Amino acid sequence: MGRAPCCDKANVKKGPWAPEEDAKLKAYIEEYGTGGNWIALPQKIGLKRCGKSCRLRWLNYLRPNIKHGGFSEEEDRLICSLYVSIGSRWSIIASQLPGRTDNDIKNYWNTRLKKKLLGKQRKDQIYRRKGDLPMKKGRSPSEIPSSIVVSGNENINSQDPYLPVMPPVPYLYQEPTFVSDHTSIRKLLINLGGKFSSDYNGNQSINMVSQFPTDNTLIDLQASSQDDHNFIACSTHVSSSSSMLLNSQYNILPIQEGQSGNFPSVFDQELCYSTNPQKLDALEFFYGGMCEINTSGSSSVITCGDSMDWGEMSSLINTPTTNGASCLR
DNA sequence: AAGCGCAACAACCGCCGCTCA
DNA sequence: ATGAGCGGCGGTTGTTGCGCT
After folding, report:
1. A106 CA: nearest nucleotide by C1'
2. CATH of A9-62, one of 1.20.58.1000, 1.10.10.60, 3.40.50.300, 3.40.50.2000
3. What is the mean pLDDT of residues A144-152?
4. Which domain of life is it from (predicted)?
5. Coil, helix or strand at residue A17
6. Is any atom of strand B within 7 angstroms of residue A88's beta carbon?
7. pLDDT at A125
8. Is nucleic acid strand B under 7 Å from A59's C-beta?
9. Which of A310, A328, A326 is nearest to A167 (CA)?
C-alpha cells in the first residue's frame, strides 16, 4: 500500500560488518539521524545491507556510550534479579543497565550467567541434601548464593547488602510488572485499560481497576512518576490478597496485607502449576532446594517440600522503607 | 602442529504489534 | 475496516578464538 518494500534479500550482504560499512553507517546517522525509516537507510548511504541489519548494528555496536563485556558483579546480580522477576525481556532489562544492549545481556545470560547460576544452584542443592546448608531459620547472609542477592541497593538499605531483589512471588498468578520509564508506565497501564492524566504540578498518575475474566483476579494498579521516583504498585486480590510493590530501584516486594505471617495463597497449598518452561526455569533458580519441579505431560508441578512460610522467607528478605517507596495498602 | 571441543559474541530469522495508506 | 510495511523483540544460528589433548 504505497510503502517501500523491505530489502531485496537477494542483493543484500550478510555476515560480519566491515569497518568501512560501520564508518558509513555511523557517519550518516550521526549527521542525519535514521530518518525514521531503517529500511530506506541502507539505500541512501549505498550500503548493501538490510535495514534491520543496519538498525541492529547501530543499536548494538555503533551507538555512542555502548559498553561491551566486563560485566560487574553488580550488573550480574541485577540481571539475575530482573530475569527472575520478568523473565527474558531483555530490552527491559537492558533499559536498566546504562550502556548495555539487550543483545549483549542476552548473550551474556545465555553463555555465562545461566551456567554460573545453575552451577551455584546445583551446588547449593547438593549441600542441602547433605544437610550442610540449612535453608530454614538462621541461614547467614554469607550462605545465600550471591546470585540472588543484591548490593546495588545500598541507598535503600545500607546496613544489609544481602537484599534479595525478587522474593518468590510466582509469575503464575501475577504477570510481573516492570517499569522502565514514564512511557512504559503509560503504555503498560493504558494497554491494561487505564486512563492517563497529569496534574497541574506535572506529576502524572494513573488509577485504574481492571477485571481479568480468566481467573476473576481483580488487579488494582496505581502508577506515579514524581521527580526522580517511578513506582508502580500492584495489588492482586486473590484469596490471601498478596501484594507486590516495585520501585525504581528494582525491588519487588511481596507484601502481605495486614500481616506477614503466611505465605501467599499459592504457597498455602504448597503446590503451584505452570506450563511455561521459562518461568519454571526462573523459579528453579530461585527456589533451588526449597522446591522440586516435576514435569509430566503438558504441565509441571512445583512442590515446596520444606513448608517454608512467609515469615521464614522474610528472614532472608529485607523490606526497604526509604527512598520514597511505600506500600499502597 | 593438528584436531577437537567449548565459550563468547555477532548477526540473522521469524514473529508480533503498531502504524499508515 | 483492512492489509501491508515497519520497527522492535526474543530466540537461534554462525563464526571466531582459545585451550586442551
Report:
1. C10
2. 1.10.10.60
3. 35
4. Eukaryota
5. coil
6. no
7. 60
8. no
9. A310
Residue A52: how many other CB atoms lie within 10 Å: 14
Torsion angle, alpha carbons of A323, A135, A178, A262, to 10? -80
- The grid cell for A197 is 492524566
pLDDT of residue A120: 60
Sketch the domain layout of chain A as residue ranges.
Answer: 9-62, 114-314
Using only C-alpha atoms, chain A has a radius of gyration, in whole angstroms, of 23
| pLDDT class of A160 with cuts at 50, 70, 90 | very low
Q: In this model, does residue A4 exceed pLDDT 60?
A: no
- d(C-alpha A319, C-alpha A253), whole Å: 7
Tens digits of per-residue pLDDT, A10-58? Answer: 678 888 888 888 888 888 888 888 877 888 888 888 888 888 888 888 8
Distance in Å, residue A305 CA to nucleotide C6 C1': 50
Nucleic acid strand C: bases within 7 A of protein CB: 3-12, 15-16
Q: Sorting pLDDT into bands at 50, 70 and 90, what band is A304?
A: very low
pTM of the model: 0.52
> C-alpha distances in angstroms, A35 versus A28, A30, A39, A191?
10, 11, 10, 28
Cell for A63? 551507538
Residues A33 and A40: their CA atoms lie apart, in Å, by 12
CA A261 – C1' C11 distance (Å)?
A: 41
Distance of C1' in C4 from CA in A2, Å: 9
Measure the CA dihedral A294/A252/A147/A143, to 10°.
Answer: -90
β pairing state of A271-274 and A229-236: unpaired
Distance in Å, residue A137 CA to nucleotide C8 C1': 45
